[in-house]
Specification:
Blueprint lengths: L10 H6 L1 H20 L12 H18 L2 H5 L4 H22 L2 H8 L2 H7 L5 H15 L2 H7 L3 H23 L11 H24 L11 H8 L5 H9 L14 H58 L3
Helix pairs in contact: 2-3, 3-5, 5-10, 5-14, 8-10, 8-11, 11-14
């Protein structure tokens, strides 16, 4: 038995994913080129604000930590880290992109041929809710997840699909593209967030209240080694197995699989409540502010009409 720091035996490539690091840096560079140098090429383009750039950088760092740092490696060893990755990736990183991307860039991206078809789903919010939560729940069925983790291509494809669907799911709430009159009202946005939480609950409950470990890729040595090929170079893994250094996740942790699984479900539920709590607060105060602005506008127009009426009446006295 060793501790989690022993994952260093998998080497630098597995722990720090330099290719994914280069990818995140490239995306960040393109973002700043577009928003600081090329924004005039877009309809309605404007300089990026400090707040938007700070959120984008923070989000890219978060994404690299989740999918490029040792956190990704640990997500294949402990199911609790897997759920931590799911919660922060789909329920925090995805909606943060709406705060980081200026409205003109959002409009351009969702207008691209392929993305236009994908984000058309968001015009039916109930469908967007069902698609993400349905696929998320199906993905976490033991037979599905264990099978997907046997193929890097299939597993990565499903993770990308879920991330895209999470962007689509949050589009009706946070997008800056649709005209204001096409947005859901503040109350409906709050109910929408509540609906996401309700639909996520069955998957969390299944994981928390299971009487035994459900996923062989976290308990069975052979299945686990096959799943580790998703993030560890084949040569490194074969060498470690050949030397008899590792045979299963128990080498890295004393955590009982069933307790780890229960902790994973609790983490997902608690993180969801925290993130959604902030979202609900944001939506409520923005709704209140908009309603107040509308009331002030109605009052202003009423006073203006009264003034014009009074001026008109004076002309006939």
């Amino acid at each position: 038995m060793e501790n989690l720091s022993s994952i260093s035996i998998f080497g630098f490539m597995a722990n720090w994913s330099p290719f994914f690091f280069v990818f995140t840096v490239m995306v960040t560079v393109v973002y700043f080129l577009v928003t600081k140098k090329w924004y005039r090429e877009f309809e309605g383009g404007r300089p990026i604000t400090n707040k938007e750039s700070a959120i984008f950088i923070t989000n890219m760092v978060l994404i690299y930590i989740l999918y490029g740092s040792p956190v990704d490696l640990l997500s294949h060893i402990l199911f609790s880290f897997h759920m931590l990755q799911m919660a922060f990736g789909f329920l925090l990183a995805a909606p943060l992109f709406y705060a980081a991307l200026p409205e003109y860039l959002q409009k351009y991206l969702v207008g691209l041929p392929v993305l236009k078809q994908i984000f058309a789903i968001a015009k039916k919010p109930l469908l967007a809710l069902i698609l993400f939560n349905g696929i998320f729940s199906v993905y976490h069925l033991p037979v599905v997840m264990d099978s997907l983790k046997m193929s890097a291509v299939a597993h990565n494809a499903v993770i990308i699909l879920l991330f895209v669907l999470s962007l689509v799911m949050f589009y009706p709430i946070f997008n800056k593209v649709e005209p204001r009159e096409n947005h859901m009202g503040g109350l409906f946005k709050m109910l929408y967030i509540f609906g996401i939480g309700v639909l996520l609950t069955p998957a969390c409950a299944l994981i928390i209240f299971a009487s035994e470990p459900m996923y062989s890729t976290y308990t069975d040595g052979d299945a686990w080694l096959s799943a580790m090929e998703l993030c560890v170079p084949a040569g490194t893994l074969d060498s470690l197995v050949g030397q008899g250094m590792i045979s299963g996740p128990e080498y890295f942790t004393d955590s009982d699989p069933i307790h780890d699984q229960q902790a994973a479900g609790i983490i997902m539920k608690v993180m969801q409540e925290i993130f959604f709590g902030f979202m609900l607060g944001f939506i409520f105060f923005r709704w209140y502010k908009d309603e107040r602005r509308d009331e002030e506008e109605v009052t202003r127009r009423s006073l203006e009409e009264a003034r014009i009426r009074k001026e008109f009446q004076k002309q006939f006295r």
